[in-house]
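Re-run with default settings, no changes from the original entry. Doing this only to confirm the output is reproducible before filing.
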Amino acid sequence: MAEPVDSPASALPAEPVYPRPAPDGREDCICFLLRSAARRASEHYTRHLAKIGLGLPQHSLVGMAAAFEKQNGRPASITELAKALDLDRTTLSRNIAPLVAEGLLVVEAGSHGRAKAVRATREGRAAYRAGLALWRQAQDEMIAGLKADYPALMAGLTAAIAGTPAADPPAIDIDS
């Protein structure tokens, strides 16, 4: 009886081999790896916060609006909130709209009628507080998974953020 001949398909690895995120072929892309890590971390936190109907970005936005007002005695302007959340104003405005529709945030005319102020509503602050224990559980699981690497990772990420050039803000025509 003849030996079976290996087909070309049987020579392939059982699992595909994925290329490294190295567009130039020499080193891994920092941005790709950070974005991948951020997506996975966000999904982890969002799975926990889904119990209260918020994702991590929504929970953070409502919490930041509440914290800013508590610490400063006034609501944050959209510009201030964007800076605190490290977002551009357009992205922040898109993220605010559904939270306003859900009654978790309100956007009010700011002082002198120019800047808009963002305030967490009573319902928003309650939703934020309801999510804190869920966030804590997600955070503790992340720290446990990172084990001894946690302090170095946090220091490295903090240094990476500080060392990364910020985008130039777009020019704003205040006369129009």
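Residues 172-176 have pLDDT under 50 and may be disordered. The longest helix spans residues 122-146.
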